[in-house]
Amino acid sequence: MNGLMEIINARRAVRKYKNLAVEWRIINQLIDAGCMAPSGMNLQPWKFYVVTEKDLINKMDDQICVVVKEIYTEPHMIDFLKTKYAIFHGAPVVIFITAPRENEWAALDIGMCSQNIMLAARAVGLDTCPVGLGKFIERTSFYSQLQIPVSEHVLISLIVGYGDEKPAVHERKKDIIFHVRAGVTEVSLSRETKN
After folding, report:
1. CB within 8 A of 114, min separation 6: which ones?
2. Which DSSP symbol is given to 136?
3. With contact defined as beta carbons under 8 Å apart, do 161 and 127 qualify?
4. What is each CA distance from 28 to 25, 83, 121, 178, 180, in whole angstroms?
5. Whether the predicted pLDDT of 1 surpasses 70
6. What is the pTM of this model?
7. Which residue intervals of 48-171 are DSSP H helices?
8. What are the pLDDT digits (tens) for 77-118?
9. Beta bridge partner(s), residue 178
10. At what angle do helices 106-123 and 2-10 cross, to 10 degrees?
11. Dmax of the chain from CA atoms?
């Protein structure tokens, strides 16, 4: 349990990567870990579309930025999008995870699958970041290159690589656990934030 907790506590959303490739053997191992996640009725709704060509990733990044700027007009979002490679952060691997459009529970399954992948990556010395904006690849001219069937849609993208930064842990919310008994609900535990 200690080893698992160390991996969980060490995982960070990393947004700066070294210019190092990730072996396909390792990518496959990470996806195997994702496939071990639970899913509703064991439907295993996930499919993985993996992009490792740096030039293609950067072009996808540029086009998604254009789409996102049209959707979100908040000043902080616009400032964020001005940074180079604002979507995929220069990572050498992007994994687009899809699910069937008609599966209403798939988002939960994909969330658990994604967490497995991110923890497995940390266990082998890689870093990751879940990128929700990656779903807007569907609105770019590069979407057809992924050859995703119309019956599926992108729920999330994950970036993977060798991190070139060590983000500090964010403070975690406290007083979030409630002990529920017959007729009584009370705060059960006050959590301490780890530094």
Report:
1. 34, 97, 130, 156, 158
2. G
3. yes
4. 5, 31, 11, 39, 42
5. no
6. 0.91
7. 54-71, 75-81, 106-123, 143-146
8. 777 788 888 999 999 999 999 999 999 999 999 999 999 999
9. 187
10. 100
11. 60
DSSP label of 41: G
Alpha carbon separation from 85 to 114, 121, 126, 146 (Å, rounded): 22, 22, 19, 20
**SS3 at position 73:** coil
Sequence length of the chain is 195
Q: How many CA atoms lie within 13 A of 7 on its CB side?
A: 17
Query: What does R_g of the chain's alpha carbons equal in angstroms?
Result: 18
Closest CA to 97 of 145, 31, 22: 31
Residue 34 sits at the vertex; the CA angle it makes with 154 and 106, to the nearest 5 degrees, is 45
Tokens of residue 13, six digits: 């959303």
